[in-house]
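Morning run. Coffee first, then this:
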Amino acid sequence: MNTYKSFETERLILRPTSHEDAPFIFELLNTPQWLKYIGDRNVTSIKAAEEYIRSRMQPQFERLGYGNYTITRKSDGTKLGTCGLYDREGLNGVDIGYALLPQFAKQGYAFEAASKVLEAASDNFKLDQICAITSKENTASQKLLEKLGLKYIQLVRLPKDDEELLLYELPPQDRHNG
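And here it is:
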């Protein structure tokens, strides 16, 4: 298996999600916030989480070299959430996304992780078009996207999805320079 880059911030380590994260991914994908704002991925067991990682997360790493990162707190090794760059059908550009377990929300972890992922998008992966999508009801995510420098563009629908989502983009002048 290839070794993909991990990243560090002051408080966090972001490393590519792997099969050993299956119990954590199972827990995260079944939180009320994930189900409400991101959607039910039908990950109903740790075995299903292993399959989700294998079939949905790892192929993008193999294809593009980046994807979903598990966020771990340096001080105690606790897994807090995920943050990553996603090549989504129906979007121009690469989507930045994040999710934390509820007990770790509102502590600056998502901003810290997403800021590092945005920096990596430019510096490590040379991506020039970054976007994000979020549900109309997810005001916390909207505020975080704006704090990260992304600007609301329009409502969009992804293929095979009925929900209208808010599309944000990172303006070219706000992107990091490598």
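Helices lie at 22-29, 32-37, 46-64, 109-123, 139-147. Good start to the day.
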